[in-house]
Specification:
Keywords: Acyltransferase, Multifunctional enzyme, Nucleotidyltransferase, Transferase. It is elongated, with a radius of gyration of 26 Å. 19% of the residues lie in helices and 30% in strands. The N and C termini lie far apart (76 Å). It is built from 8 helices and 40 strands. It is α/β, with parallel strands linked by helices.
Length: 443
């Protein structure tokens, strides 16, 4: 794909991702997202030049992560709002005659997409056609939808049309090819909108000017992160790639522990008596899986402690998460979080319907009937606390012992239980009782 240029979008405020932090810096299978994605894009696309567009929080960190990846790579901080601002920031680095592929750092797909694109590229260049990528879905996704004509050319992009108003079954994956940077630059400069869809307006204006946009019809797996619970989709995407058991040489596993299925267990981890790790699962470095604990379908970061008789199921942890005889199900937990004994994450409604989550003041369905909690960094959960399904806890919070938490908690809060109880004199001498009858039944 000689002379193809890339813009990789990693900016934006991630406001819908709250209380979790920078989604472009998450880790999967022990590697940061920029390292995973940029290495993959360069390996398959072999670009002439790659420009990554970050935000004020992640630009320097991404630069550090990708600095050892071979290739002509620059990381720039986004100027301007939305995808249009990101695209314009990237376009400054290319000549009008260049062709260009724009990708999203947080779109995860199979290698077959690159193969399909490679088969189409020479024809696109010859005919001076551009390309958008569609993913057929029967389930509504809050993204852009493609409008197609009878010849499968894309005629418009409708951003977030709302469930029931979709113009087609094709959601747009950000895998946009342009035969001419100059052409895109011209239409971007002319596009106007009162909403955050200037980029999509520019594309639609190009199509209405008889610039042909071919659709790449992608039918493989695709996951992306817009909302916090999408982290679990991406986790599963990577867990499904584990093939066999990859266990570091210095991992210590008790003779009575069980390791089942496809797993990766990193260096320094210890797995104690009667613990079970049921794949697919990833366990990072220097973790402890305590006696009688169960880890299944989950991804744990480094320095995590799964305490005695704790169950961790279908959950994503970053680093330094500690449990002490708990149930953690279908939850996303960031760094440095500790659960007191017998605290738990509820993950299923009594009526077994889909769980809703508060996103920017709006109650949105997650589309999941099992979803636990979404917890930011530096949180402590006291003994016996119960966290209801879909509840979010922001960073630097304490949840006191015995609290039944059914509302989201903002940053830097201490939630304490208020209770009344009576203390009176005890006039019964229990020492005079005899338990021999009870004991006789213990056979």
């Amino acid at each position: 794909m000689s002379n193809l240029n890339l813009i990789i979008l990693a900016g934006g405020s991630s406001s819908r991702f709250a209380p979790l932090k920078e989604k472009n810096l998450y880790k999967f299978l022990g590697k940061e997202v920029p390292k995973i994605q940029v290495e993959k894009f360069i390996r398959f696309l072999k670009p002439h030049k790659t420009v990554i567009i970050g935000n004020e929080t992640n630009t320097e960190i991404i630069s550090e992560i990708v600095k050892e990846i071979e290739g002509d790579i620059e990381v720039k901080q986004q100027v301007g709002d939305g995808m249009a601002g990101a695209a314009n920031t990237g376009l400054e680095n290319f000549a009008d005659e260049d062709d260009l592929l724009i990708l999203n750092m947080n779109d995860y797909f199979e290698d077959t997409l690159f193969e399909q694109f490679a088969e189409m590229l020479s024809g696109l260049r010859e005919k001076k056609q551009s390309l958008l990528t569609g993913f057929m879905t029967e389930k509504y996704f809050p993204g852009g939808y493609l409008v197609l004509d009878d010849n499968n050319f894309v005629k418009a992009v409708y951003e977030k049309p709302g469930e029931g108003n979709e113009p087609s079954k094709y959601v747009r994956i950000v895998f946009d090819y342009f035969a001419s940077v100059g052409q895109l630059r011209e239409y971007m400069s002319q596009a106007q909108s009162e909403s955050d869809d200037v980029y999509e307006v520019a594309l639609t204006n190009m199509m209405q000017s008889d610039i042909e946009f071919v659709m790449l019809d992608y039918r493989g797996k695709w996951v992306t992160i817009k909302y916090p619970w999408h982290v679990l989709d991406v986790m599963n995407f990577f867990l499904d790639q584990i093939d066999g058991q990859i266990i570091a040489d210095d991992v210590k596993i008790s003779d009575t522990a069980v390791i089942r299925g496809n797993v990766i267990i990193e260096s320094g981890t210890k797995i104690f008596d009667n613990a079970v790790v049921s794949g697919p699962a990833y366990i990072g470095k220097n973790c402890i899986i305590g006696n009688n604990a169960l880890v299944r379908g989950s991804m744990l970061g480094n320095d995590c402690i799964v305490g005695y008789s704790t169950e961790v199921t279908r959950s994503y942890w970053l680093d330094n998460v500690w449990t002490h005889k708990n149930y953690i199900g279908d939850s996303i937990i960031e760094n440095d979080v500790s659960f007191g004994s017998h605290s738990l994450t509820a993950n299923l409604r009594l009526d077994e319907q889909d769980i809703s989550v508060n996103i920017k003041g709006e109650r949105l369905s997650s589309g999941l009937n099992k979803l636990g909690n979404i917890i930011g960094s530096n949180v402590r959960v006291g003994v016996g606390a119960m966290l209801m399904p879909g509840v979010k806890i922001a960073s630097n919070c304490f949840i006191g012992s015995g609290v039944l938490l059914d509302k989201d908690v903002e940053e830097n809060k201490f939630v304490r239980l208020k209770q009344d109880y009576e203390v009176k004199d005890n006039n019964f001498d229990i020492s005079e009782t005899n338990r021999d009858e009870f004991r006789s039944k213990l056979k």
